């Protein structure tokens, strides 16, 4: 979720009224935003935006635009979205880019002089949109240039990595694309996006001056916007034409909100796209949606009429046409997040204000209940507490070592994580007992005796199970004190079985974790459900435990019928 | 101290204390050894009684001294019986045997190191030299007094069993120090133990107490009431010793549920009371149930390798059950007839089958939708979830999410708000709530609830919404469904006085034993 930093003076200029943190905080509900911080001294405001489907809101212009619409009762009109405009600016797409990064869009903004604030906001918008919406430039990258230096038309093509040299931002020497990929920090970060392809994208003007190597880096010659520039060329490349168009629309609207004149750029594709072979951007992308008034009522629980719906949605930036028992809405062109009529219904609810809806208690009768395994686990926990045991609760993502070497069980098959962040949290536990031994290891100073138990989930690999493993609920108990022994624990197990009305038998077993001759397999109705024994000195040594321990573990899932 | 206090203090004395007070009365400073004898107590009981009496201000420790006693170690004992290696080598050489360093150990049944050290000592004292072929030879007329002195000291200590170091002569002490140091702890000949000895005196208060105790036979007072006393009636006419009931009792290791589990038990009970059925699914999920079924597109930023734990082997689940797989694939690609545009991309089966550790409890809700839930129906789960995060004070490696769904013909945005209000009242005792617009990929409208907790103030209690049709219709559910999730960790942590989420899963028994819930 993007967090942006904006300035009080900038908000006031865009909103046209004085800033108040309390009012602003309330207004942020319109954009699903939260006021993280406001520093009255510097005027710096930090806002967190929660809607990952609305990149138009990840900038001060977009946030204020939504608030402004509410204030005005309608959204602003942006004439440059009209179709069929003529423009002198043309960008020609070469067929060579079709494999590596097929789409580009652009516009020119004139008449606003770049100052420190605008420069900072432009860079922030570029970063947020490219990182989150553009998935770290994989699907969207933005370039901004001083437009006055360009020789039109521009050309977007793919070239061999060693064919062209230019001086990238942040360097003094001309480098090939391959050299940028290898040496430039941005190259190392972003060139992997195109590295699998034989030819890499390049944007150049008609005089052969390189603008950029998308999605990696701009050229120093024309790709560095400075304070004082007043003609900007804004360009977007990507893998999806709708997304590219949406981002061009957002950037154009943002500049227009600051008073810029937007000049479209006609992009000539080698073959037809979903918007045709010639795409003039910015351009309309929004679909019309027809929503029955009944659908509002059903979803929201309040009867609505066409006037109210039209009024609220208009104040949220939509164009609305009432049409019998329905409304037809057209979203503003800087939004492409309406997948379903429910999205329009939510916008209506937000526009009207959530607090305008009276809460209503659900009336339908239902019967509550616990899962059988939960009820059984709760019974077992009661009994263990009655036997004097302290319940513990452990994390179940643990280290491989604790489940294997520490238990003298080498090479056990486990559910293991592929993208390990830390070896301490790399496998799901396959038994509860190691969790208790971990507590014992950490608790030598806690007064004795220690009687511990835990009921919890474990994961066992099962190649033939749908998810490749099975989750079961097991219970382990451990006693640790200078005289801890098998009989003490066997007596507890006997009592537990008795009160669970389960008949268990113990059969001698050799198990590496336990002292030979002091370990038993716990079986119920001929089925093995667990182990009991005195832990071997080797195991205690691995854990660094210095008092004798006896333990048992049973699979509670196995006790359930079926 | 008032008279009555003095009386009750005297009356409350334990028989052991009375024995000590009696032994001390009339005498001045008494050492603990003498005290034990006079009071007829062993060391442990004497120390216990003295500890109590010092605590009560009846006696005081007037002097504490440290003394050292000398005894033989096992090695020393052996030397006392068979002679020191040095003495035995001299005796052997005096018989004229052919002795080299190599066969010495075997001849005398010594270990090699012991034999080597002894020969080294003898050579240094010029008692023995090495001749041709390494044969050991006695130096004629050598001074054997040093070897004899050691033998003498060993004999002295052996006959005493244990003696005060200070009773040894200066030469003997020097010799002892050398042997003690030179031999090291394990193989030393002598063991020197430090003993602390205390002397006690009655305090001014103690003297008054002693006067009252004096002459009284301790047996007059009864201690523990026993079955024998009851049977014989021997308690009649006697007084019971008064206890000091204000002593802080010892801690008891009692059986107890884990406090966070107990908190979750309360949540569970509330859920059942509100008509919710429990549901669950497995710790390992495929991406289909973890994400796809919840209409999160396969290119969603939160599905990155950096947000979930992927399973190493096997990497993929079995094929996803039909018709759910086809329905969800269609909904992602083009809306699949749900009235949605879908996400407009090619849905990949192998990504859907990629195995992950459950990253959100909503996966359980997705399974429940596919299972054919009851309508009307209410479900909850307390699901262990995993996120790919650096573990720190706000991120545990795994944690619980309390989540669920409500299905019914009456379900809409207003009943959703009503349900959340009910949760706030039942789980946080909050009557004041705020609803804010929120974003979740699988609900629309979505809402975040803040509630004013009586002690914590405003807290974010949870998020909820109405499942998108893109989530319910592919599962065959055509009634509105509320999806809700509660953030209860913070509430539990504050209730337990914790500041680090990892402490909810602590391996520190002392912490677990001392955590408690306010009433």
Structure description:
The complex is a heterodimer of chains A (562) and B (519). Chain A has four domains: 3-72, Phenylalanyl-tRNA Synthetase, Chain B, domain 1 (2-Layer Sandwich), CATH 3.30.56.10; 79-281, Phenylalanyl-tRNA Synthetase, Chain B, domain 3; 288-355, 2-Layer Sandwich (Phenylalanyl-tRNA Synthetase, Chain B, domain 1); 372-559, BirA Bifunctional Protein, domain 2 (2-Layer Sandwich), CATH 3.30.930. Chain A contains 15 helices and 27 strands. In chain A, the strands form six sheets. In chain A, strands 4, 5, 6, 7, 10, 11, 12, 13, 14 and 15 form a ten-stranded mixed β-sheet that branches. Chain A has a seven-stranded mixed β-sheet with strand order 19-22-23-27-26-25-24, with helices on both faces. A three-stranded antiparallel β-sheet of chain A has the order 1-3-2. In chain A, strand 10 and strand 11 (210-213) form a beta hairpin. Chain A is elongated, with a radius of gyration of 33 Å. The mean pLDDT of chain A is 95. Chain B has 519 residues and is α+β, with helices and mostly antiparallel strands. Chain B folds into three domains: 3-65 and 197-240, Arc Repressor Mutant, subunit A; 74-188, Winged helix-like DNA-binding domain superfamily/Winged helix DNA-binding domain (Arc Repressor Mutant, subunit A), CATH 1.10.10.10; 261-514, BirA Bifunctional Protein, domain 2 (2-Layer Sandwich), CATH 3.30.930. Chain B has a seven-stranded mixed β-sheet, sandwiched between helices. In chain B, helix 7 crosses helix 8. The radius of gyration of chain B is 42 Å and the shape is elongated.
